[in-house]
Structures are given as C-alpha cells and as structure tokens.
Design goal:
CATH architecture of the largest domain in chain A: Orthogonal Bundle
Number of strands of chain A: 0
Low-confidence stretches of chain B: 1-20
Mean pLDDT of chain A: 83
Helix content of chain A: over 70%
Oligomer: heterodimer
Strand content of chain B: 15-25%
CATH topology of the largest domain in chain A: MetI-like fold
Largest interface: A-B, 58 and 52 residues
Low-confidence stretches of chain A: 1-12
Strand order of the largest sheet of chain B: 7-6-8-5-9
CATH class of the largest domain in chain B: Alpha Beta
Distance between the termini of chain B: 37 Å
Number of domains of chain A: 4
Radius of gyration of chain B: 21 Å
Structural class of chain A: mainly alpha
Number of domains of chain B: 2
Number of helices of chain B: 15
Shape of chain A: globular
Radius of gyration of chain A: 27 Å
CATH superfamily of the largest domain in chain A: MetI-like
Helix content of chain B: 40-55%
Mean pLDDT of chain B: 85
CATH superfamily of the largest domain in chain B: Periplasmic binding protein-like II
Chain lengths: 686, 319
C-alpha cells in the first residue's frame, strides 16, 4: 500500500525522496478527505477486536501452566536472599563500614576507602540502616543474576550472528514493557514477597549488560582477534582470555548501567511490598508529599549506587597495588571499636541525625514555591501554550484568544502551508528534495497535532520511514505491529504516549548531547555532571514528582519534565563516552596534519563517536517509554494510565496489551534509529 | 488536633463484643501476618488489631504490602488479614478472590468515611459563595489552568479509583474538566502547593485523612442523594443527568485469608468484631503525621489509656 511499486520510473529519485513523497501524499489525502469520512480521522470502535480479552485469557492460561515451576524457583531464590539478609543484619554496623572501607582501600586506595566510609556513614546517620540492608540484600541477589543473564545473552548473540535480530527484539521487550504491566502476572507466578521484586529488577537490568557485552565484542580489534586465532586458542579461550578482556572498558559501562537499572527498580519491589526496604520508605513519604524526607530516603539509594559504581569502576582500569596492611588495619580497627563499645553500641535504626536537615529542605521547598509561584506558572503556561499543546492537538485547536491572543483561522492554515511549500521548493532547488518534502509533512503535523493524526498517515508514514531506514522488512513489521494496536482499540492512547515521549526524547537529545559534549571536552564539567547523572538514574523518581508537582501541578508539563529528568542521562553518558574514546593515534595524526581542535572534533571525534551516540539516543528513547508509567502517577492519559488501571482492576489482559503497545512503539522507534545508525556507520566506513 | 469522643466508640465496640462467645486459640505458636499498607491510618488500625491479638496470646508479624497487590498474597495465605479496605478504591482483585473463596470479608471496621468535592479554606475567598456548589457555576475561570482552559480544573482521584469527581461535574453540569491525579502523593502535593501559594484548587478528597486538618480542607455542600440519583437522570437538580448529588458513603471493611477461622478461631473472632472509630483513629494519625510520633508509641499509649474499648473484644473471644 505504500511505495510498493518495485523499480520506480524515475530511477534518479533517492529512497528518502520517494518515501517522503508517499507519506506526504497519504497525509494530504487524509487531511482532504477526513471531513467527509470520519473513520479516516479516528479508528471506529466497531472495528476493534476484543484483543485485550484474548490476551488476558491466553496469559492467564499460560501462567497457570507454569505456576508450579515458578513457585519452585521462587522458593529457591529465597535462600540466597535470606543469607544475604542474615549476613547484612547480623553484622554490627561499624564492622560493615570497616569492611566496606577496607575493600575500598584494596580497590582504589584512600579515595575509595573514604568514599565507602562516608557513604555508609551517611546511611547510618539517616536512620534508614535496617531498611537499607533489606534493599542491599535484594540488589546483592538481583544484580549477579542480571549480569550473568545479560552477559550470556550478549555472548550468545555474538557467537551466533543469526540470533542478533531476535535477541535485540527480546532486549527491547525486556526494557520497554513496563514492569507495572507484568506485576500482576509475576505475583500470580512467583507468589507474594521480595522475590517478585528481585525478578522484576533482574529483567529490567539485564538488557544494558547484554547490549554492552555485544557492542564490546563486536568492536574488538580484528588484529587482536587474529593474533588469538594464530596462537592456537580455542574459541572459549579467545572469548574469555582475549576478546572480553580487550572489551573490558565497554563491558564495564554495561555493568555500571546494569547496577543503576537494578537500583532504580528497587522502588518496584516496594510497590509490591513484602519486606521493609528503603523503597517502601520512599513510597510512604511520597504519599505524604514530604519532599525532604523522601529525598533523604532516596539519597540512601543513590549513595549505594555511587559507592558500588565507583568500586566496580576501578576494576575496569589499570589498578595500582595498595598497601595490604591498611586493609587489615581497617578491618581490625572496626572489630576492636565494635568490641570496645559493644554494650553501648547504639542500634543503627535509632539515629536521626539528618531529620532536621530533611525538614529544612522541606521548608525551603515551601519557601521557594511561595516566592516563585508566578514565575513557575509563567514557565508552565508558555511551555504548554507554545510547545506541548500545539504539538498535541495542532495549531488549529491550540491557538485560541486566551492562549496566543488570537484565534486560528483557515487563512492562517493556508499561510502555514504556503510558507512550508516555499521552504520545500527552496530546499529542492538547493538539491535537498527529501528535506523539502519533510518540511511539508512537518507543517501538516503541526497543523493537525500528534494526538489527532489520522491513522492511515501514521501507518504509511512509519512504514515509509522504516523502509528508508532499514528496508522492506521493517516497513512490513511496522505495518503489522501498528495495525495490532489499532485493532486492540488502544491507538488513541498510543498517540498520546507517542506525543509525550517524542517531545521528551527531542528535548533530551538536544540537552543531553550538548551536556555530553561539554563533559567530553572539560574534565571539570564531567566531575560535576557525573554524580548528577548517577543521582538522576538511581534516585527513585517518585522523589522528584513532589517538587515537580508543587511547582507545575498535575499535568503534561510535569510529566514531560519527569520523563526528561530520567531519559537525558544515557544521552549524556554515551555522548561523552563516544567522544572521549576516540583512538589517540587518530587524533594525533589529525593534529600532526595541522587540524584545529574544532576540526578534530567535527571531522574525527564526532564521526567516530556517532555509533555510540546513536546507541545513547536509542537508550534515551527506551528510557523515555519506561518513564511514561511513572509519569502516569502525575496523571497523564496515555498508555501509562491504562497500565495503572489494569493494575487496579487486576485486568491481566489490559495490562499486557497496553504494555505490548508501549513496547511496540519503543521497538519501532528503536529499529528506525538503529537503521539510520547502521547506514551512518557504513557511510563512514566504520 | 481533634477531640476524641471515647463514649461513642466504646458503645460501638461493646455492642459487637456482646454477642460473641469464647473460641479456641488454635495454632498460637505460628505468627499471624497482618498487612501494612501505604497510609498512616491503616498503620494505626492494623497495629491496634495486632496488639489486641498479642494480648490474646498470639504472635503477630507485620508485613508491608501494596494495597492494590495484597489480595493475591492473602489468597495464598502469605498474609492472613488486611484491616482497612476502602470500598471507594478497592482493587477488583478483591471481588475475584472472594468469589473464588480464597479471601473472606471480616465485617465493617466502623470508620465513618466521607468523600466529596473539597477545597482548602482560603479558596472560599477566591470563589465567594462556597461551600454552596452553585458558586462553582460562576467561578470556573478562577480554577482554569493551561491544561483545561477555558474550563475550570478539578483534580480527581487517580484513574484506577474511579472518576467520582468527573461524574459530579457532568451531573451538575459544571464547566469543569476533571484531571486524574495519578496517585495519592499527587493529590497531597496539589493540596500543599495550593495552601502554600494561596492558589485556587478544587479537588476530590476524603476523610478521615490527616491532610483534612493539616491543610484546612472543606467540603463543597452537595444535595444529599439516594439510590435513584445514580440511576434516574430525572432525579435531582439536573433533569438530564445522573450523579447530581453528594457521594454515597464509602464503606470501610476488613478482609482475611479463607483459612483464618479454622487455624486461629479466636483471632478470627477478634478481627471480625474489631471496631475503630474516626474519633479514635484521627487523633492518632495526627500524633504521628503532624506531631512526628512513631506508630508503635502512639498506639501503645492509646491502648493503655483506652483499655475499656478493646479489652472486651479480646475477652469475649478468649474467656
């Protein structure tokens, strides 16, 4: 139904131009015919199939079938959790701090030892020691599980290239189907308790590990590979003794991301409940809108993340040997101190040193809201009126006397199209016809609004884009998958989700790219940005919902900000990582031939980093979709809300369908980006 | 803090306790697990019940559990009772499990709840005529925001609790758009921001809730309705719509594992007869959320001062 006519008559037209032309034609037709045929604008309810009910029946049947097995697994996983719990709780807290500091010294000398001691000291002072140890027990079991599973998936995909596409799809599904969507089925399967949280967090944390392992193995220098082959190593030896060590730095990015993802899922374990962990504390304080207290509880999670991250980070690089005697000294010191003060050793749960600080933070939030109420309202109104609202419902509905100061008229629509047409002709004249046609399409979308886009245009447009990015298969896949959303009757909600996450991804790409570049050129900037990234990625975002809500109230702008806060991080990280990992010999060669710093950046570092940056963009898209569900706690009306509805009504079918719809959108966006990335890589000869 | 009315609650407890006869303790060596949900009132309710069970000679374990997700655990016998279920936002899972026979209802808790369209007290200055609902007809503009313009904005319950606010706006034909809050935290954040900034806010809310007194929340007066109001459009001020009346009173009740009665007969009786009034619960909530006391201490203090309210229930089941 799209540009399906084999060889075109005009062989000179590039695929991009043909695809854009088809999409433009489809859009124009829809726009012209929509007033006459209502079914073009909105998919009629009568045409939907009871897909959600079927999904519910099928999934429930499947769950009942594998339930006994799952319960066995659940009972099995309980043991390591109990051991971890017992070990962490039975150890007096000064010894735990001593061991952590000693480990820090062993790994990275004074700086690491101090980080560990100060970090855990903060946890003791916060009064959340007991809850923290419960959380740590969960992470201690789920992260190794995720690392092993993720690593195995990555290696498997590398060993059998034919498995790569299905593995990629699986990873996307694991990362994009929101945890809340399968919470009810998971509980049914594994029973009540922390094991459900453990499994949910492992499912979410494994994909970054798998992706990075795969990327690391793919980028192993062919010369190194050949050297290993020539020295007669078996495949396993090549893999474990040569390829994995040589990709260690990339794999450590995966370990880091895996840890962060697991910790960010701690809050999900709390939603189910079953053990009194730090996430539960965050939920309780969030429910009371106590920002200071929930920030304090959230920071405990961040402290763990930072300590674990920095410790694991030292494993990637070259390590200096630090004096072993200090390790023994630290251990001995903590034991002696514990023994000396055994009788007077306070229970860690009774400390509340930081409570006044939390209250002060809360008060300053109040003061800020009162002082800046008008400014905050102005920011929100401007962003809504001139950004989000036109994007959602289009200029024809968003431009009203009380938003823009005047009403949108038919003449203005024609003027908009005329300007777009002029721009289009100009671009065609400059030899960029695809860009010109895209300008026309953009004008049409701006006029209509993303939430009101006619479904034939969305289907055809996406398929055309998929075709340009990766060929016929992707075009067909996108048609099939989007049709399934149409048939399930969730298309309207899907467009709402698309609009919100699309706006957020766009903003994140701009801001995150710029910050990542800054962090790459200035080590000082990175030192400032890095802890912020760690915090944004690991602090339960529930914590930030409170100030965002108090500043900007319930609504799309708040949701947009919440999504951006989370999704911007991979963009920053990957952009920086890509830019700083340019091989030094390339830079030296360019510098020797007289290139300026700016030229090196533009011609060497950015192109070399492009695949990594695109991986970052891909992660940003997936993160934005993941955050949609949390954003639904603010009160959005997209697929995220459906998932909460399903959770409340224990509607397995609706939950699974809405989760699947979300995964489909993310998956298509991801495939299209990856397609363009691959094309880019080919063009650069990488 | 509100003043307690001990006489009333004691009478209610006595009335229920009177008819009960003593029962076996059952497996008193095994701990009875009570669900701790996400809100303070429920913590108080559960802790009082747990201490009563302990006084009867049981071991009690408090297990944190999400309100929406707890019923699967109760059906599996991983949790044995949950003591504060609100009919206004109970998960459909509960009805399914009751139909299945794995979860049983343990009777009303005796908390008198009220839900309604509410506003922080200062809003009365911005929209003169409140609490009369007719005042809202003319000052919708005051409540308008970027998301709802030109309509006023009503912050409704999270979508999974139902849409009672939106139903009222349609029922009374008020120019308001109901925006679902997404979570209880979002509702509280709205109340807090509105009280601090003295900005307009119309919200669907309920009591008993600590925020009612903390943010001086008032209810809009809506005409008292009956069953017909929800079924017959002709009833009430608006002849074209249902729901043109006040909220139907919400029921608060207790639920438990189906095997509870057989395993711990006396505990089943205690939990079934257990009652707690708003007048008792609300001051305890205030002592915890506003004055910063711990649940353990506040409940222990209440238990020692109000032994006449709970002891008869325990004695009736065990002696």
């Amino acid at each position: 139904m799209t540009a399906a006519h084999g060889r075109p008559a005009r062989a000179m037209a590039a695929p991009g131009v043909r695809a854009a032309l088809v999409a433009l034609l489809a859009g124009a037709l829809c726009l012209a015919l929509a007033p006459r045929f209502a079914w073009l604008g909105q998919w009629p309810d009568a045409w939907t199939l009871p897909l959600t009910q079927w999904a519910g029946t099928a999934v429930t049947w499947l769950l009942e079938a594998i339930k006994p097995l799952a319960r066995e697994f659940s009972a099995l996983m309980r043991h390591p959790m109990d051991w971890a719990n017992l070990a962490l709780h039975a150890t007096p807290w000064p010894i735990t701090i001593g061991v952590t500091a000693a480990l820090g010294w062993y790994l990275g000398g004074f700086a690491m030892a101090a980080l560990g001691a100060v970090g855990l000291g903060f946890v003791v002072a916060s009064g959340y020691w007991t809850e923290s140890m419960n959380t740590l027990a969960l992470v201690a079991v789920s992260v190794p599980l995720a690392l092993v599973v993720g690593g195995a998936i990555g290696i498997l995909a590398n060993e059998m290239p034919r498995l790569k596409p299905p593995v990629q799809a699986l990873l996307d599904v694991m990362q994009t189907v929101p945890t809340f969507a399968y919470l009810t089925p998971l509980m049914l399967l594994f029973g009540f308790g922390p094991v459900v949280g453990l499994i949910a967090s492992a499912i979410y944390a494994a994909p970054p590990m798998a992706r990075n392992v795969l990327l690391a193995l793919e980028r192993v220098d062919p010369e190194i590979r050949e050297a290993a082959v020539m020295s007669g190593a078996t495949r396993a030896q090549q893999l474990f003794q040569v390829e994995i060590p040589s990709g260690a730095s990339q794999i450590m990015v995966g370990v880091n991301q895996c840890l962060m993802a697991a910790l960010s899922m701690v809050i999900i374990a709390a939603v189910i409940g079953g053990f009194n962990d730090i996430g539960w504390e965050v939920l309780l304080t969030m429910r009371k809108a106590q920002f200071g207290q929930s920030l304090l509880a959230g920071l405990v999670i961040v402290v763990f993340a930072v300590v674990i991250d920095r410790y694991s980070g030292t494993l990637a690089g070259e390590r200096r040997r630090h004096d072993r005697r200090v390790v023994y000294l630290l251990l001995a010191l903590s034991v002696v101190l514990t023994a000396l003060f055994w009788s007077s050793l306070a229970d860690a749960a009774t400390f509340h040193v930081l409570t006044p600080v939390a209250e002060a933070v809360d008060r300053s939030l109040t003061a800020f809201t009162i002082a800046n109420g008008a400014t905050l309202d102005a920011i929100k109104n401007n962003a809504m009126f001139f950004g989000l609202l036109p994007l959602r419902i289009g200029l024809d509905q968003a431009v009203l006397p009380f938003t823009w100061g005047f009403a949108w008229t038919g003449t203005m629509s024609w003027a908009l199209f005329a300007v777009a047409a002029v721009l289009c002709l100009l671009l065609i004249w400059r030899g960029r016809p695809a860009a010109g046609l895209m300008a026309m399409i953009a004008a049409g979308m701006l006029e209509t609004g993303i939430a009101d886009l006619p479904w034939p245009f969305v289907l055809i447009g996406t398929a055309a884009l998929g075709w340009v990015a990766a060929g016929w298969r992707l075009a067909l896949l996108s048609l099939v998958l989007l049709s399934s959303i149409l048939l399930s009757g969730l298309f309207g909600r899907a467009l709402m989700s698309l609009y919100l996450s699309g706006a957020a991804v766009f903003a994140c790409a701009l801001v995150g790219g710029a910050v990542g570049w800054l962090a790459a050129v200035s080590p000082l900037a990175w030192r400032l940005v890095r802890p912020l990234c760690d915090m944004l990625q690991t602090i339960p975002l529930f914590v930030f919902l409170i100030p965002v809500l108090m500043f900007f109230q319930i609504g799309e702008f708040s949701a947009f900000l919440a999504i951006c806060a989370y999704a911007v991080v991979p963009m920053i990280r990957y952009t920086r990582h890509g830019l700083v990992s340019t091989p030094p010999d390339l830079i030296e060669a360019a510098a020797a031939s007289g290139a300026t710093d700016a030229q090196i950046m533009r011609d060497i570092r950015v192109p070399y980093a492009a695949p990594t940056i695109l991986l970052g963009l891909n992660q940003t898209i997936l993160y934005a979709f993941a955050m949609l569900v949390i954003a639904a706690l603010i009160g959005t009306t997209g697929l995220g809300q459906s998932i909460y509805l399903a959770l409340g009504q224990a509607d397995v079918g609706l939950g699974v369908s809405a989760g699947a719809a979300m995964a489909i959108l993310a998956l298509l966006a991801d495939r299209i980006v990856q397609g363009f990335a691959a094309e880019r890589r080919r063009a650069l000869g990488l | 803090m509100r003043k307690a009315y001990p006489g009333l609650a004691a009478a209610a407890v006595a009335a229920f306790a009177g008819g009960a006869s003593a029962a076996e303790l059952g497996a008193s060596g095994e701990p009875i697990k009570l669900a701790i949900n996400e809100w303070t009132g429920q913590h108080v309710t559960t802790r009082v019940a747990g201490e009563m069970l302990k006084a009867a000679g049981y071991e009690v374990e408090y297990v944190t559990a999400g309100m929406m997700n707890q019923f699967q655990a109760i059906a599996d016998g991983d949790i044995h009772a949950t003591l504060e279920i609100w009919s206004s936002n109970v998960s459909d899972e509960y009805a399914k499990k009751v139909a299945e026979g794995t979860v049983v209802e343990l009777g009303d808790l005796g908390l008198d709840a009220k839900e309604g369209i509410a506003y922080p007290a200062h809003v009365a200055d911005l929209c003169p005529g409140l609490p009369d609902w007719k005042a809202l007809k003319d000052c919708a503009q005051v409540f308008a925001t970027a998301d709802t313009i030109p309509l006023g904005r009503l912050v409704d319950y999270p979508a999974d609790w139902g849409t009672p606010g939106a139903d009222r706006m349609a029922g009374f034909d008020l120019p308001f758009k109901a925006v679902p809050a997404g979570s209880e935290g979002a509702l509280i954040a709205e109340l807090r921001a509105s009280s601090e900034r003295k900005s307009p806010l119309l919200i669907t809310f309920w009591q008993p809730h600590w925020a009612m007194s903390a943010y001086d929340v008032k209810f809009v007066d809506l005409p008292v309705g009956n069953e017909e109001c929800f079924n017959d459009p002709a009833w009430g001020v608006n002849p074209d719509a249902t729901h043109d009346c006040d909220f139907a009173p919400s029921r608060i009740f207790k639920g438990g594992w189906a095997g509870l009665e057989e395993k711990w007969p006396a505990a089943y009786q205690i939990l079934t007869n257990y009652q707690l009034s708003v007048e008792d619960q609300q001051p305890m909530m205030g002592a915890i959320d506003v004055d910063g006391g711990s649940v353990e201490d506040v409940v222990a203090a209440w238990m020692s001062q109000n032994e006449d309210k709970w002891r008869p229930v325990v004695d009736a089941a065990t002696k």
